[in-house]
Amino acid sequence: MVIGGGIAGLAAAHRLRERAPHLDVVLFDQGDRPGGKLRTVELAGGPVERGAESFLSGDPAGGPSAAVRLAEQVGLGDAIVHPTTSKAAVAVDGGLHDLPPGTLMGIPVDTDPAERPADRPGSGPLLRPGEDVTVGGLVRPRRGDLVVDRFVEPLLGGVYAGRADRLSLRMALPALADAAERSDTLTGAVRSALAARRSTPGAPVFSTVQGGLSRLVDALAASLPDVRLGLPVRELRRHGTGWRLTVGSTRDASTVDADGVVLAVPATPAARLLSTVDGVAGVPLGYASVALVALALPATKLPELSGFLVPATEGFAVKAVTFFDQKWSHLRRPGLTLVRASVGRAGDEHQLQRTDPDLLDVVRDEVARLLGVDRLPDPVDAAVFRWGGGLPQYEPHHRDRVAALRAALTAHPAIAVAGAAYDGVGIPACVTSGWTAADTLLEALEG
């Protein structure tokens, strides 16, 4: 039984089906369609993503990412496409400036020791084994506020909608955290983390599926024998050697028995379901909300970039802008220019209280100002996609809390957790999390 039809739940169910075809695999999701935050809709007669637009092409070991492998498994290998350009900028001091090359999430490798004495070699590694700090806590004293505020935080904001001084280093930059256990300077740690990236020179960093990420969702759902939508799972209890789920509305609930369960839902509903399991507590986790504003403009001249980031210190509601048809050649349409802007940072949700028309006006005005033009043309089509509580905000030692939860679950019949709440954001991370949960379940069932 898999609870949750986002990409982690779909990956878990697909893995169970592939590795144990004799099992009756059932996936429950309370929505009217699977996919969670992956959904392709139509804008001005063509596809646009409501949520994530792409995924990493490679994994840290140098092979294809879990997302690429999953797409290949469901027959979409030939549909994988890559950006036409990945050159991006950052908006500071009234202009667009190239992101500095050779950095790790905006952290430059080298710095003048005279300017940053805190990065001189010390008496030991930057971090003790297993120690966790915020990204800002490690980087600010060794690279300065300007680097963090102008480069590191905008990049983190684009991925997590989070703040450098709140986000866990081990969750946001695990390779840097590992390197910091072996290095006595940030320079050494950044160099080590960059060297550990086993990628082919010139290989594309990002990929997507031509026609939209809903194609991946639909292919996964079609591969499963039993997907039940519109059915929330309200309760989870031990029952004999397995589990009993209470499913459906409060007025029309039913029970379903399962030998094993994968919980692939966000931290809060997972904690509620786990509250009935003795000795188990969910993982406390906050979430940030975001809105994505998509504009289909009459053909408009834009800088030759994939888009740009906007630091919070610049005072704009917009935090990132993607030039979709410049970034992805397969999205180009004659006479149209596709732009998508992101609004919403952790602690800055008041911007999202605006109505959709008001938010559209704010985005059009701010994007024009950031581009240095008087105004953008009236859009041919436009849409606002809201994700309330969409992005997890990992505080330091989040990994320890997840490890404690998983250790507690081993005392019970086959049960596992999966998803961004536990193993990081991004499609490959969620796919890997789903696969790991499925393998944990199979091991417990076969044991």
Automatic annotation (TrEMBL):
Belongs to the protoporphyrinogen/coproporphyrinogen oxidase family. Coproporphyrinogen III oxidase subfamily. It catalyses: coproporphyrinogen III + 3 O2 = coproporphyrin III + 3 H2O2. Its main location: cytoplasm. Involved in coproporphyrin-dependent heme b biosynthesis. Catalyzes the oxidation of coproporphyrinogen III to coproporphyrin III. One of its GO terms (cellular component) is cytoplasm. One of its GO terms (biological process) is heme biosynthetic process. This is Coproporphyrinogen III oxidase. Residues 112-133 are annotated as: Disordered. Gene3D superfamilies: FAD/NAD(P)-binding domain, protoporphyrinogen ix oxidase, domain 3, Protoporphyrinogen oxidase, mitochondrial, domain 2. Signal peptide: none annotated. Its cofactor is FAD. Residues 7-442 form the Amine oxidase domain. Its EC number is 1.3.3.15. Pathway: Porphyrin-containing compound metabolism; protoheme biosynthesis. Pfam families: Amino_oxidase. It comes from Dactylosporangium siamense.
